[in-house]
Amino acid sequence: MKTLTLLLFTWLGFAASLHAQQAPPPDSLRQHLDYLFAPLDKAQIPLLRA
Q: Where is the signal peptide (predicted)?
C-alpha cells in the first residue's frame, strides 16, 4: 500500500509539473506587435520600375 501511495504522488507531481511548464497564451499587445514587426516577404512587394 505504501508503494502504491508513493507511486500515485509521484505521478501526480509529474503531471502537475508538465501542466506548469505550458506557456501562457500570448496577450493581444504581443500579437499586435508581432504583426507590425513581422519580417517582410519581399516577393509580395511589386517592383517599381521607371
A: 1-20
7 residue type, one letter: L
Cell numbers representing residue 3 in the block? 508503494
Prediction pTM value: 0.37
42/20 Cα distance (integer angstroms):
40
Calculate the dihedral angle through the C-alpha atoms of 22, 23, 24, 30, rounding to the nearest 10 degrees: -170
Query: How confident is the prediction along the chain (50 residues), in pLDDT tens digits per residue?
Result: 889 898 888 888 877 776 666 666 678 888 888 888 877 777 777 777 65
